[in-house]
User: Which sequence fits this backbone?
């Protein structure tokens, strides 16, 4: 089984989740299509997702007394929830022993959900990639090709860094219960970190929802 198929087992079929799970009825456009990536001080980059500007490589200092920040020093990432209405919990609770064993053979290290009112809007997974020449660009293209072969989808945007250390893309599909999906990926030290959103199109969200979702994506950092 390929990695993208394994992700499906964890219930976030890129296709169903991103393409089938989260697509808006219309393609949304980036506010600055001619300049989709900006570089700022200290190596921080700003990219444009469907929810707005996302900061990359800019982790905030962790407040040890905060209950809204999930900081994993062992796996090397952190992510935050907007407020106490959200919950962060392990994805392992939803996997059978057979599913977990299968995933581990593919390098699965851990996963978690960021959810609100039991609605799993976001899933974060970490894989150990034992392949020195692993290409994020090829991986993203394979996922998109797989979705396009199974459903009528649109790719609003796809960005992959020339340095092969991050990627961001989205998928839209009409006629599905999950009309829009967006995924941000980091590759560092042979580990693949993936944060996936699945749900309604950013264009259909109210300002509070959009700000909450942007906050989660913006807080995701490899450390």
Assistant:
């Amino acid at each position: 089984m390929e990695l993208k198929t394994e992700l499906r087992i964890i219930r976030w079929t890129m296709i169903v989740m991103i393409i089938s799970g989260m697509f808006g009825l219309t393609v949304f456009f980036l506010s600055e299509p001619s300049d989709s990536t900006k570089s700022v001080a200290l190596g921080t980059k700003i990219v444009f997702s469907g929810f707005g500007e996302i900061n990359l490589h800019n982790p905030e200092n962790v407040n040890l007394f905060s209950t809204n920040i999930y900081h994993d020093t062992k796996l090397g990432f952190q992510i935050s929830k907007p407020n106490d209405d959200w919950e962060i919990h392990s994805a392992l609770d939803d996997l059978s022993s057979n599913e977990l064993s299968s995933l581990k053979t593919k390098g699965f290290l851990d996963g978690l959900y960021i959810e609100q009112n039991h609605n799993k809007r976001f899933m974060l997974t970490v894989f150990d990639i034992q392949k020195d020449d692993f290409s994020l660009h090829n991986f993203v293209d394979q996922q998109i090709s797989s979705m396009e072969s199974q459903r009528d989808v649109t790719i609003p945007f796809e960005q992959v860094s020339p340095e092969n250390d991050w990627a961001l893309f989205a998928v839209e599909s009409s006629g599905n219960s999950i009309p829009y999906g967006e995924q941000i990926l980091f590759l560092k030290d042979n580990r693949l970190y993936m944060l996936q959103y699945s749900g309604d199109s950013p264009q259909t969200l109210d300002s509070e929802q959009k700000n909450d979702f942007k906050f989660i994506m913006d807080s995701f950092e490899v450390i």
Notes: DSSP finds five helices and 15 strands in the chain. The radius of gyration is 16 Å.
